[in-house]
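pasting input
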Amino acid sequence: MNCTEFEERIALFVENDLSDAEVTAVERHLETCTDCREFAAGLRESQAMLKGLRREPFDDAIFADVRSQVIGRVSNVRPPMWPKYAIAATLLIVLAAALWRTRPAAPVGLPAVTAYIGPGPAFPTPRTTAPRQASQIAKMTVRHGRAQSRPHVNSRLARQTIQQAGLAHPRALHSEPLVVKLLTNDPEVVIYWLVDQNGG
Amino acid sequence: MLGTALRLLGRNLEDAKDAAQQVFLRLHRGLRQLDENRQFESWLYRVTVNVCRDMLRVRIRKPAVQLEGTEHRSYAPGADEMMVHSEQIQLIYDALDTLSERERAALVLRDLEGIATKEVARILGTSEVTVRCHISSARVKIRKFVDRQSRRRL
């Protein structure tokens, strides 16, 4: 190994950054090489000058300046608010949708009879008004009604269902109003008939 | 941190102050994500080195406009600036400017901050062998620069 190759080892040697084996090799070389000994002395000198930077003091005003600038910028940097509003709005929409879908299908507290109303050409009249036998309708409720898709109502079948349920005769009826739930060919359209006891 | 930034950036106090601000702001933003098991000091040094490196790269792309009658790199010491402004210190800052970015970072962390070589390697994201190479070549370059300048003055 020549002197040029030793230079970088000496640079580590002067700051005790070498292993024991490497230190021994450098020390042996320095014993015999005057140029490298001078180089090592110069390195110690320049390293001492370099470390003089550690003692370079800072005025308190510099730290105060940095501190005030950082505090000023930190107080100006606030997280954007819109994500919070967006999350809150989404939760409200989801909650409203869930409540809408889970609301009760029939009026609470009233006995219900379900009549099937089938689709098809046999019952072409899209009337939702009551047949004669149900002329005593007190109220008709259409759930999720759509103006353009009026349901086909099989009034005869509804009548039969009422009779089969033993409710056709007015005397058989209780004093409470009877609720007739009519299913249509549109799953979203359900018709409730409330029939009083005198109407048959 | 301010001192580290100053030594990494060259003797430009305003740049060093900007760097220190950026480091604190990154610290403020990343404090929640900071892993408690990792050494905070190492993290702080790594951020400081990265901020200064970014600033140096911007400075290379967009050299600062030299105002008439002012020096770009150095600053005039005053009541609100550094107290010591000796020729020797200026000479060392000039010598540091001759180093590569990696050599300078390794030397500043090892010799001026007194961090062990292994830790310097971790901070800089490189191997211990590479750090030793950078440190030794940096010391040699500084030694030769100081020697040349001293001979020129004689």
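fyi Residues 140 and 146 of chain B are 10 Å apart (CA to CA).
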